[in-house]
From TrEMBL:
Keyword Cytoplasm belongs to the record: no
This protein's UniProt keywords: Signal
Family annotation (SUPFAM superfamilies): Thioredoxin-like (SSF52833)
Protein name, per record: Thioredoxin domain-containing protein
Signal peptide: 1-25
Gene3D superfamilies linked: Glutaredoxin (3.40.30.10)
């Protein structure tokens, strides 16, 4: 019985640590961004976001569109990728026909937090963070789990699907 136990223990030890005696670790997964894009100036830190949102609602009512509030910053690589995907065909056509896009500058997640909270978007999960609002101000979608905060590793189809899901 002792020999069987010793053999089993040896087998477990060698299986877990290999013949060399070191723990075997899987090589790290290399995450390569999907796309390399130019840096764009998207978010105007001097703009009054409340005025931009009010103007967007007025335009959305007149044109029967919805409003996308895009909380982020120019420093954010994922924000840059989302902007790139939104402004690439076929997304730009869907965006322009169905939405008024409002970029809301959040500094380094320390500015305009009241607006993000008003529209139900918790910025603690990262940016870009989106809300889709109807022309009357009713929130139809508020990002809650950082769904776009890894955009540089996502395919542009994710943006396409999002726009098609929330268009009027």
């Amino acid at each position: 019985m002792r020999k069987a136990f010793a053999f089993a223990l040896s087998f477990v030890f060698l299986s877990a640590f290999g013949v060399s005696g070191h723990a075997q670790v899987a090589p790290p997964v290399k995450r390569t961004p999907v796309v390399a894009i130019p840096h764009n100036h998207i978010y105007d830190e001097k703009a009054d976001p409340k005025a931009l949102i009010a103007a967007a609602f007025q335009k959305a009512r007149a044109e029967h569109k919805r409003v996308i509030l895009d909380f982020g910053g120019d420093w954010c690589g994922d924000c840059q990728v989302l902007y790139y995907y939104f402004h690439k065909s076929p997304n730009v056509e869907v965006l322009n026909a169905n939405f008024v896009l409002v970029p809301v500058w959040v500094g380094h997640i320390d500015t305009n937090l009241d607006l993000a909270a008003k529209y139900g978007v918790p910025l603690k999960h990262g940016v870009p963070a989106l809300a889709v609002v109807d022309a009357r101000g009713k929130v139809l979608y508020a990002q809650s789990q950082g769904e776009f905060s890894d955009m540089r590793y996502m395919d542009e189809k994710y943006a396409t699907d999002f726009l098609n899901q929330w268009k009027p």
